[in-house]
Design goal:
Length: 246
């Protein structure tokens, strides 16, 4: 374990990223435990208020993210600074993304159905950071050979193609495939080739008069949602708590 950590994390300079990820995940877990205890009326915890104002934990999260980000820049990559900044940034990001739905809707939707977006964003972010730790580079530059890397035109072409596939996947309503496709090129390619989801910009533009394609897209989306919605909701409820009934 020690040799693997030295060879794959410390030598490539990925220790700050690992610390940030660990702080991010731990902060999310602890925050959800505390908020669920508050919701159940158990334990010594309670909402933080300033007069009549409820101070959401996104507020200290933003402060810690800013401090960690500027601290990392100011440290110049030397000494203990990058590691401390990485931990502060991870804690802040965990607090911010735990209330991502609140920022998106500009409303306290933490325990509502819309609050599931916070859990989705946390899981998505953690998964992307794990891919970065595993050695995947954005836009698939890591898949290019050394000769291609020396050739700027070849590298730029690879980046442009992968970015294009990711944009097509995004326009087809494949948001998760588009995001992961930025890191893993084959995912973006798969997302760009699959049928667009109903209501996506691609479907509205290209399926308007193609009745068969529109029907196939509706049927595939129905079967996909029927197959995966319940397991996804179960995992979200286990991680973040079950939303209140409307």
């Amino acid at each position: 374990m020690g040799q693997w950590l030295e060879r794959n994390i410390i030598e490539p300079g990925k220790l700050p990223l690992l610390l940030a990820l660990a702080a991010f995940v731990l902060t999310f877990v602890v925050t959800r435990i505390i908020t669920r205890l508050i919701r159940a009326g158990k334990g010594p915890f309670g909402n933080v208020t300033a007069g009549s104002v409820h101070i959401h934990h996104v507020v200290p999260g933003v402060i810690l993210t800013v401090v960690g980000g500027f601290g990392a820049v100011a440290s110049g990559g030397h000494g203990f600074g990058p590691y401390l900044s990485a931990v502060l940034f991870g804690v802040g990001a965990g607090l911010v993304l735990d209330e991502f739905a609140l920022i998106l809707h500009l409303d306290d939707v933490y325990w509502s159905e819309a609050g599931r977006k916070s859990v989705e964003m946390v899981v998505l972010t953690a998964a992307l950071v794990v891919l970065l730790l595993a050695g995947f580079a954005p836009f698939g530059v890591n898949d290019l050979s050394q000769q291609e890397l020396r050739n700027r035109a070849g590298a730029l072409t690879g980046v442009a193609l992968n970015f294009g596939f990711a944009l097509i996947a995004l326009s087809k309503g494949k948001v998760r495939l588009a995001v992961f496709g930025v890191i893993v090129p084959v995912v973006a390619l798969v997302g760009s080739l699959r049928l667009a989801r109903p209501g996506s910009p691609w479907a509205k533009r290209f399926y308007r008069r193609r009745h068969r394609a529109r029907a196939k897209a509706l049927l595939r989306a129905y079967h996909h949602d029927r197959r995966w919605s319940r397991p996804a909701r179960t995992i979200q409820d286990w991680l973040g708590g079950k939303p209140d009934r409307p």
